[in-house]
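Go through this pair.

…
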Amino acid sequence: MDMRQISRLLAGLVFLPLLSEAAGKCERLIVTGSPDAPPYLWRDPADPAHLIGASADLIQQAGHELGIKVEVLYGGKRAQAHDEVRTGRMDLLLDAPLTVAGLSSFDYIHPPLVRNDYLVWTRKDSPLIYETPADLHGHKGAVSEKARLSETFNEFARHQLTLEPQPGLTQAFQKLLLGQAEYVLAGRYAGMVTAQTLGIADDLLAHPQPVDQPGLFLAVSHDSACNEPWLRGQLAKKMTELPASGLTEAVVQRNLERWKTQLQQPLSAPKQ
């Protein structure tokens, strides 16, 4: 083999990693998540096969910038959607809570796509003074069964708080108004829109200091053909860039208005 052939061989070896990376680049992502978590994610009334919301808009924006086609599909209720991604039938969860158990099935992308602030809601005439979670000790509270608080807070609540689960946020607020609960734990936006829809916003006070701020993470299935270092790295980069640009907050606010508009046609209380 002469020097010219050796040079060509070496040149080919240099470009092999680049070619492999290009060949393995994911071109299409099938994603899903909770179908009942507005303004972040909910089932599209006009197209029930798809999910809409802030999380859907943000992952599609990230996909567009990365040259990846993203489809946000309805994968069933929350547990079913989780299973669709866990088994690799779908690639990615949009709103996964970070759990130790989840690490065996998913690669979580840091930072989270969004954080869902949970606030303490009381009646305006309530004597309850809240500044820290410890202030809730000894007081009876209510929370929707659909609430997804962090593992750390759930552990604290099990040992320190008296929280009665309710089928939904509407029922939790009803308990509060009837004096059967002293406070309700609810997401900032879910609580606000539910109170407005029920016509009780003027009767309630949302304390501004969040009691918990669970992150909603992108979680890539270990069994997804798209789960590769390039994709995980690029998604992590986008999750950092989007909030810094102000786009995340703008998208959340836009979808909050979108959700409110849908609730008015016909007028009904949100289910979470």
